[in-house]
Amino acid sequence: MQIITYRYAELLMITFGIVLLSIASGCKKEAEPIPPLLQLLKGVSVISGDTAAGQGDSLCFQVNTVAGSDPIVLYKIFINGQSYKDSTMNSQGFVLTEHLLKGTDTLEEIRFMVRDRYSREASVTVKVTLEGGVTWGPVVYYTGITLGAQNFASQGGFYSIQGNQVFTLAQAFGQQQLIDLLYYYEAGDDNTIASPGANLSASLFTGPYALANWTTLRTTRFKKINLSASDFSSCSNDSLLITSYGTTEGNRKSKNLASGHYYSFLTEDHRYGIFRVTSVTGTDSGTILIDMVTQQ
Amino acid sequence: MNLMTRRWFAVLFPAMLILPLAGASQIRVDSLARVVVTATLHPASVDKVPARVTITDSIQLATAPITNTDEALVAVPGVLVNRSWGIFSKNSAVTMRGLSGSARVLVLLDGVPLNFSGGGGINWHILGPDQISHIEVMSGPASSLYGQNAMGGVIQLFANKKPETAALRFGAEYGSYNTLSLGGSYMQPMDKHNGWIAISGFSRAGDGYILTPEDQHTPYDTTAWLREVSGRISGGLDIAPGHQADFSCIMQGDRRGAGTRVYEEKGAYVQTGTGLFSARFRGEFGHSTSYSAVIYNLLENSFSTDEKVNNQGIYKLADIFTRRSDAGGLIHVTHRIQRHQITAGTDLRNGALVGNTEYRSSTDSLGSGGHMAVAGLFLQDEMDLFKNRLSLQAGIRYDFAQFSGGYLAVVNPTSETGFAGDTVQYFTSNRWGALSPRLGLRYHLSPRYSIYLSAGQGFSAPKLNDLTASGKIRRGFKLANPDLGPEWIKTLEAGGNLSPAAGLHLNPTLYYSYARSLQYQVSTGDSMEVTGELKPVLQVRNLAALRVTGAELRVEWYLRKAWYLYGTYNYNVSLLGTTDAEDPLVQKLDGKLISEVPAHLGAAGVMCRMPAWFARIDWSYTGSLYYDDENTILTEPFHQVNLKAGYRIHRHWMASFTIQDLLDQAHIDKKGLLSPGRYITAGIRFQTSWKS
């Protein structure tokens, strides 16, 4: 009986050893991972290497990316080390056309970067030297702009800076290419001025003219700033508008607006501006009153 | 599933009602004069130790309608088991005596502490209920013997046991959500050196269910699936007459879906691998001196992928790596001198934590880590006075704890983590000392009635996770607090072991605890964007005080030998007292109830066990509790009815079925996610034993 017992023990140990060997032999060497690829495409009117540009000039880049072993999850643009644009995705590759504006810095290093799922990275940096001096452009003030929230039928809530016009939803539907911002009220974000290209709840604007049915959704980006009323009122050129927005990308919504708030913005057609809230009623059928200074 | 459930009921419920009338032969399952070791570190009668100790024996474990070991503790008064997703929960939080946080309950496996210094909690999946022989729960602080973590109580699981005969067991279970479990064990005693060896294994896989309530579904919700495997090898032998050695090696691994899938093949998930190696030496010198020495190494590697689309439609992906390890040794010697039984010992432990979060959808990388070393010395004296009518237990322990090597490294931060720039912070080392005395008295009014009174102090060093780690958590953004200090609790309790009739046991207990410098997570007043919402920045700080007042009652009735009935109730009020705190953010919590602790907990059950079959039905109640420190989010109370029945279909074969949440009342947990609702499994098991 004792022999049987030891045989059991031996059998167990052999089985255990076989299992360990099976696990060890099942391990195979993994292939060397391939990082993603990023390049700036060459072409007419696009920049693919170091260049010089004047202040406010449009810089056009065509960015081509290809995933390596793993999908691309992050695409970023840095300007002088500051994050300018930040997009997340899960992509095997894409081609994007980027329009940037030359700022006031003597030298801007624009870095395009992609990362894959395991943070393997590819990037290209372009140096853009300022051509000529820094010049500032004229500005224009629009005061007493009244925008109605989504349920205020008679008061338009869609605004076009070009021509300083306010539209209702139905009117805006026919002028989609002009609409820079809109106003709504929603619990949580409360009073919000957003761009049509923002990620808006489908329940805010419904019917045949709902944003879901628009073919052109312009994107204006906003940044909350601290400003005094006198600084706002005394802009003689666009220097404050450009410098207050800075080089990082703003948000597509300016939320929880209250009287006295100041926001710097950049429209899709590269127009800088600042608006201030002078009064707000705070319901989905209420209004917001703003003043604005923008590049002429 | 509903149709299937109704059919099961139609067949099995009448059978359960009829079978007890058949008058099969009876097996007594009374547990009078049971022996426990947790309260004294050596075998002592549960009715003699001046403390509240509750035993869950092998029969109760085998018949309990549970799928994980921790669920058996629901029947212990004052124990809150938070496993709201059933077997699909990535872990369980077990708390006791009105204190929140798993770190305030020490969990031992055959004397080996399972709490990680890193986060304080334990991996409850390390051993399944089949692999546990019995459980002892000592309620109230036990730091005079065990040091840190033993503030609310001590739970000891027992698994290492020499088999009387060779035995083979294997079985399979299949159930709701396409869940298949396989398990088996083989035990072999050996004649030479009185040795033995045992091997057991367990695996489980299930498709899971969608955690999000139906009205909140998003396109990214997916099932919280499960893959789990564990194995254990243990053995022992006599190294000399009267001296034994045994060892245990456990490896457990699991991968559990988190309920979200956007792009990743597996979606968001957590993968954990845990290993525990321990060796124990014990024996006696003569008839009056015994010793025990344990060494152990506990290691856990976890990896999780968190992917989601936030409510602004932005994709977020992050990988989190964590490595926790604890190694140590415990030695104690017990010596009897006349009426005194003196136990002295030492306890050394070194814990380490290394964590790294790689935010894949941004450039942020966060790393943190640190070490916590604890050394303790303890002395205990037990005396029997007045012709053994009065039992006295006095103990004292001094612990020295040192936090060192703490760091926080931040690389390429963005608004995702909120740090201003690249930084590497090396935290200052810190040291603490803690004295933990305990005095207990039990007076035997008669052989059936005894009362006890005890006073003790418990202590817990801060957790490495709270000292060093920063990162997003569900409620907000948690910030490391390297200045966090230890916490202390003093408890006074009184209770009785009353047996007014044969087989009937009533165990009432009253307790009052005062905790100071309580480690408690509070809002710092700052906020940051987390998954598209503005959420509070949180930090664990030393709160001024906590006052816990509570009462427990456990009733057990072993009726007509085959029947077992039990009921437990716990009432608890845990009030924060912060008037003497300097921090205004802490002061505002004055008079608030501690979060995640309900005022009412209850459980009841009835079991009938015959040679050929058994049936058991359990009910549990968890009262409402506050989820947040400011007492603004109150969860709904909930009941659960669970049932298990088994029938011996052949000499070696047993069929069983288990229904958890019989009434299918899925509840919403503190995270706003659903419990699995009715969960049914049916299984078959082969079991045989033979003399070798």
Q: How would you summarize this macromolecular structure in one to three sentences?
A:
The complex is a heterodimer of chains A (296) and B (692). Chain A is 14% helix and 41% strand.
Describe this structure in words.
Chain A is built from four helices and 18 strands. By secondary structure, chain A is mainly beta. In chain A, the strands form four sheets. In chain A, strands 2-8-7-4-5 form a five-stranded mixed β-sheet, with no helix packed on it. In chain A, strands 9-18-17-16-14 form a five-stranded antiparallel β-sheet, with helices on one face. In chain B, strand 24 (471-473) and strand 25 form a beta hairpin. Chain B is built from five helices and 34 strands. Helix content of chain B is 5%, strand content 57%. The model of chain B is unreliable at 1-32 (pLDDT under 50). Chain B has a 22-stranded antiparallel beta barrel. In chain B, strands 3-8-9-6-7 form a five-stranded mixed β-sheet. Chain B has a two-stranded antiparallel ribbon with strand order 1-2. Chain B starts with a helix and ends with a strand. The chains are: A mainly beta (296), B mainly beta (692).
Assembly type of the chains comes to heterodimer
Beta content of chain A comes to: 35-45%
Tell me the helix content of chain B.
under 10%
Task: Determine the strand fraction of chain B and express it as a percent band.
Answer: over 45%
Rg over CA atoms of chain B: 25 Å
**Overall mean pLDDT score of chain B?**
90
Distance between the termini of chain A: 102 Å
Specify which chain pair forms the largest interface.
Answer: A-B, 23 and 27 residues
Overall number of strands of chain B: 34
Discrete helix count of chain A? 4
The number of helices of chain B is 5
Give the class of chain A from helix and strand content and strand pairing.
mainly beta
Average pLDDT over all residues of chain A: 88
Q: Could you list the spans of chain B in which at least 5 consecutive residues all have pLDDT below 50?
A: 1-32
Shape of chain B: globular
Helix content of chain A: 10-25%
Shape category of chain A: globular
